[in-house]
Amino acid sequence: MAPNREICAFFFEDKGQGDYRCQLCGTPRKQQAGTGYSNLLSHLNLKHPDFEETYDTSLATATPLSSFGFVSEAAKCRYQWLQWLVERNMPLTEVDDPLTRCSKSVGVLVEKELGELFGLMWDGWTHGTVHYVGIYGVCYVGGMRRERLLSLSPLDDGSRDADRIATLLELPLVGCASHRYNLAVNRYLASYETELTAVNSLMVQLRHVNNAAELAKFTDRKPVKRNITRWSSTFEMVCRYKEIRDSIRQVDAVEEFIPNGSTHKKLLALLEQLKKLDSVCKTLQCENTSMVDVRVLFDQVADDYSVMASHLHPTAKIVHTPVFDSDLVKICNNTKLTASELRAVQRFVVEPTATSGKRKERAASNYASEILRGGKQMRTAGAATVSFHELAKVVPPTSNTVERLFSQCKLVLTPQRTCMLPANIEMLAFLRVNRDLWNAASLITTE
User: Fold this and answer.
1) Is residue 198 domain-shared with residue 262, that is, in the same domain?
2) Are the beta carbons of 134 and 152 closer than 8 angstroms?
3) Mean pLDDT for the stretch of residues 33-56
4) How far apart are CA 313 and CA 367, in angstroms?
5) Residues contacting residue 366 through CB under 8 Å, at least 6 positions apart
6) Using CA atoms, how far apart are residues 38 and 31, in angstroms rounded to an integer?
7) SS3 assignment, position 387
C-alpha cells in the first residue's frame, strides 16, 4: 500500500492554506498541515471506495488522473467557454439572443422614422486589413435632425471614396467640412515644417527613458510628439513645448535639440494662430453647426489665411457639387434661387408651411464665435418664394457622427476579438447607436 501522503497528493489538489479539492468529484476539504491526512482519507473511503484500485491502475499504466476523465474545475470551465465560442462562432462578449432578435423590430422603427425623404451620411474606416463603411440615415423628425445608423459593413474595395460613390449613384454630395479644413490647415503648416520638425525631434528625445526621468524632476508634464495624420496633435505639441521649455533646459542631454531664439519666436507666433484655427476646428464638430456657419467660417478663414483658400473656397476643386452646397446655404438664409439652382434642389421643394425660423444664441468668445456673430451673413433683400423641406436646412456639414462611431468600434474590436464576425459588430453598433428605439417592451415578441 502506498503512503497516505502520495495517495492524497494524487487525488487532491492543494489550494494552499490547508485547503484541498478532490479531483474526482470537486469536493473541497480541510486538512491543516502537520495533522496527518485522516480528513482527506475519510473522504476517499466514504465517497470513492474504489480509490485504491484507481491508484494502482494509474501506477501500473503510468497515466495521469486526467486519463480517467477527471479534470480540474478551471479546465472544465475554460472548455465550456471555448466550445460555446467555437461552435456558435461568437465574439468574447455578446448580447443575449432575445436582444439580438429585437434589432429587427428596431429596424422597422428606423424605416418608419426616415420616411420618404432622407439623406445618407457615410464615411470609411480601416481596421487592420479590413475596410469598413458606416452609413447613417439623416431625417427631420419632431423639429430636429435625427441620425440613425443603417449599416456598418466591410468593403472589399477600400479605394471607393465618397466622391466616387456619389458619382456612381448620381447624387449630390456634401463633403465633410472637417476633412476640408484639416487639409487646409496642413497646407498652412507646411511653411513651418522646419520648426515643427525640430520640436518633434526634441519631444522624441525627451521621451527616452533617461531623459524622461530627468525631466520628471522639474515638471509633471510629459512630452508630446505629433501625429502626422492629425494637425491637432501639432497644436498640442507646440502648447506642451511652451509649457515645459524652462524645464527642458534643465536636461543637459537634449540641449542640442532645443530650438534657438529665432525658432522659438516663430513657434510662439504660430501657437497664437493655431489657437484661432483650433477654435474653428472645434466649432465644426458641434452638433448645431449648419451649412451657413461653415460657409461664414470658411470665407473669413480664407480671407485671414490666403494659403488655405484653395481648400475652403466655395468652388474649390475638392468640392464635389459646388452648386448644391451653395443652394443649401441660400435655403438656410431664405434667399431666392435661380431656375438652374432650383433644379439642383428640386427634391426638397414642398408645399408652403408656416415656420418660426428662430435661431439659438451663441455664447463663447473665441475666433470662430466672433466670425459667426458679427461676420459675413450672406443674405439678400428678396425672400425665397419657394418652400423647402426642413431637412434642407439641417443637412450635416461634416461626417463627424460616423467618425465617433468608428471610435466606439475601436473599443469593441480589441486584439482579443479580431475574429469577431462583421454581422455581430454591425448588430452591436446598430443597437448601441439606436438605443432610444428599444426597451424592455421590445423583447416581448422575442420570447
Assistant:
1) yes
2) yes
3) 83
4) 19
5) 276, 279
6) 8
7) strand
Q: Which set of grid coordinates corresponds to residue 208?
A: 527616452
Q: Which residue has the higher pLDDT, 183 or 368?
A: 183
- What three-state secondary structure class fits 170? coil
User: Residue type for 111, please?
Assistant: E
- Which one-letter DSSP state was computed for residue 384? P
Q: Cell numbers at residue 162, please? A: 465618397
pLDDT tens profile 120-148: 998 888 887 888 889 999 999 888 899 99
Cα(124)–Cα(155) distance, integer angstroms: 9
Give the other-Cβ count within 10 Å of 370's Cβ: 15
Whether residue 207 sits in one domain with residue 170 = no
Are both 385 and 418 inside the same structural domain?
Answer: no
Helix H or strand E segment including 434:
none
H or E segment and range at residue 296 = helix 291-304
Q: Does this model's pTM top 0.85? A: no
- The answer to whether the CB of 152 falls within 8 A of the CB of 401 is no
Q: Are residues 225 and 250 in the same domain?
A: yes
State the amino acid at position 158 in one-letter form. G
Residues 165 and 145 in one domain: yes
- Please report the pLDDT score of residue 79 as a whole number: 54
305: in domain: no
Residues 321 and 366 grouped into a single domain: yes
Which SS3 state, helix, strand or coil, does residue 343 take? helix
pLDDT above 60: residue 381: no
Instruction: Identify the domain containing residue 226 by its residue range.
Output: 184-281
Residue 111, number of CB atoms within 10 A of its CB: 12
Amino acid residing at 236 = E
Q: Are residues 276 and 189 in the same domain?
A: yes
Domain count along the chain: 4
- Write the DSSP string, 34-87: TS-SHHHHHHHHHH-TTHHHHHHHHHHHT--GGGGT---HHHHHHHHHHHHHHH
